């Protein structure tokens, strides 16, 4: 199994041409809930939110999105989504995407929030390793399944950090 921390994984600004693939991955990853459509991803990009894709051999294998509001010292960021093709899970792709998002939040010195299914122990552990703590519970957050979510928070960084193990560029759509 390839570990993308040591091979050619590129994290780039998400390309509009990849939104169909994002919607396809959503349907695979979240079939019991309300997976995002092409138009939902397009709306996020149109609103100027920060979205990146994980690419290997020019193929999109994961995506992530972040919204930042306000300015330091009161800025807040919210991780909107992280998704990785099931074939590529467990190889560092989600970690690379998260680190890229956190580097962006750190540039703004933003406290970062996210919601995660309470039964997604793998993701919860990854978030904890990156400084998040559980601060709340949202009953029946995910619909239509009714699954609960933890709200997690990561304090604002005192100084911007670099995105470890990733390369971020401004790729056009």
UniProtKB/TrEMBL annotation:
Compositionally biased tracts (Polar residues): 159-173
Enzyme Commission number, as recorded: 2.3.1.267
Domain spans labelled N-acetyltransferase: 9-157
Enzyme class: transferase
Record flagged with keyword Transferase: yes
Superkingdom: Bacteria
InterPro entries reported for this sequence: AcTrfase_RimI/Ard1 (IPR006464), Acyl_CoA_acyltransferase (IPR016181), Bact_Acetyltransf (IPR050832), GNAT_dom (IPR000182)
GO molecular function: protein-N-terminal-alanine acetyltransferase activity
The UniProt record lists the keyword Transcription: no
Keywords: Acyltransferase, Transferase
Region (Disordered): 147-173
NCBIfam families per the UniProt record, alphabetical: rimI
PANTHER family, alphabetized: AMINOALKYLPHOSPHONATE N-ACETYLTRANSFERASE-RELATED-RELATED (PTHR43877)
Name of this chain's protein: Ribosomal-protein-alanine N-acetyltransferase
Lineage, top ranks: Bacteria, Bacillati, Actinomycetota, Actinomycetes, Pseudonocardiales
